[in-house]
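TEACHING EXERCISE
Course module: macromolecular assemblies
Task: Read the component lines below, then compare them to the predicted structure of the full complex.
Student: A.B.
Group: 4
Components provided:
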Amino acid sequence: AQSVAQPEDQVNVAEGNPLTVKCTYSVSGNPYLFWYVQYPNRGLQFLLKYITGDNLVKGSYGFEAEFNKSQTSFHLKKPSALVSDSALYFCAVRPDSSYKLIFGSGTRLLVRP
Amino acid sequence: DTAVSQTPKYLVTQMGNDKSIKCEQNLGHDTMYWYKQDSKKFLKIMFSYNNKELIINETVPNRFSPKSPDKAHLNLHINSLELGDSAVYFCASSPRPPGLAGGDTQYFGPGTRLTVL
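Instructor-supplied answer key:
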């Protein structure tokens, strides 16, 4: 079955510290990988995507993610967290054989001042 | 200037009623989607249309029927509402279907919170 796992329900970091939000996937064929962010009572916003090419992808608001094929992972990172980064983060995968975007269960990021 | 808009924002209704949620995008996109987000924040695709043609039709109760009068609008009609239909429904759009240039970035509306009593 094609799936995405976000093993942490919540990640807590102090402002100014680096953050990592984990994501692993299971698909057949080539994966197209995405991160979206959801602020309270809002729709999802696109952060970044990996389609092909360089394994390190840079996105909006200083976020980046690294595609690791051997570990089937696509962890989201930021060198220095801001309180305003506090939100719900979704990893998603689209198998290359499908139109469908499959979302993980989401990870709540809480950045303490 | 809202890119993807949904109406209503909140919808409270009784079991057994029929209701519709409307979605409009002014981005000139060809492809639109409906997602359901349950109380645990789990997000799942329901339907997708490309230029008024259905391209994704997930296994959802046939009480749910999408309608796309033109490529800028995708409405969701729900018959005989049940308690389990309570969720937030998100509309989204992309320039083209996934896999084509620009098609893999989706733009989401603000959501419609449906509560069935």
